[in-house]
Write a structure and sequence with these properties.
By secondary structure, this protein is α+β, with helices and mostly antiparallel strands. It has three helices and five strands. The protein has two domains: 51 residues, no CATH class; 94 residues, no CATH class. The structure holds flavin-adenine dinucleotide.
Length: 148
């Protein structure tokens, strides 16, 4: 006989999306029953447990996009979460460099997007960074993001 299991909310997939969705549901509806289905033996088995671990700053996305908005908001939310729960974070900067002069317009566009998206960025080569590129103007060859 088929057993019928009832739940107020059913979340499928125990990656970061499923887990944070289930967590948000729990916070919003404390008395609701929430079921999370995961096909693997544990959560975060795929992309969420095997990614590069970069907390993206948000300068790749065009400024008026939802991606840019959520990237920025998510960056701040993760930082708050990490601080609140005493977790470790590598609070490093990100350096974006060009390989050739032809790439300078793209670099400038990323810098512009970063500024529009509220990412703390500086242009110019950071102290101590050695770069070997064919660009003629070394001061233009990189941007540094302080929110990564
Ligand atoms: C190589 C790589 C590097 C990345 N680096 C970064 C990074 O540095 N920073 C960053 O922010 N993002 C990074 N990302 C992106 C980020 O990891 C993903 O966007 C994010 O993990 C996606 O989460 P998810 O929950 O949607 O998917 P997943 O983590 O893939 O979770 C989906 C879950 O659903 C389960 N599932 C699937 N089908 C079923 C089913 N029918 N029934 C039950 N369960 C099911 C899967 O087993 C899995 O556990 C990277 C991605 C990749 C691939």
């Amino acid at each position: 006989m088929t057993e019928i299991y009832q739940s107020d909310y059913l979340v499928i997939g125990g990656g970061i999306m499923g887990l944070t969705t289930a967590r948000a549901l729990r916070e919003k509806f404390p008395s609701a029953s929430i079921t999370l289905l995961e096909k693997e033996p544990d959560v975060a088995f795929h992309a969420s447990g095997r990614n590069s671990g970069v907390l993206h700053a948000g300068f790749y996305y065009s400024a008026d996009s939802l991606k840019a908005h959520f990237c920025r908001a998510g960056n701040e939310a993760w930082r708050d979460y990490v601080a609140k729960h005493g977790l470790r974070i590598n609070d490093c900067k990100k350096v974006v460099v060009t390989q050739s002069e032809e790439e300078l317009p793209t670099l400038h566009e990323l810098f512009r997007r970063g500024q529009a998206n509220g990412v703390r960025s500086t242009s110019g080569r950071p102290d101590g960074l050695v770069m070997r590129t064919s660009c003629t103007d070394p001061s233009e060859r990189s941007i540094t993001s302080t929110v990564t």
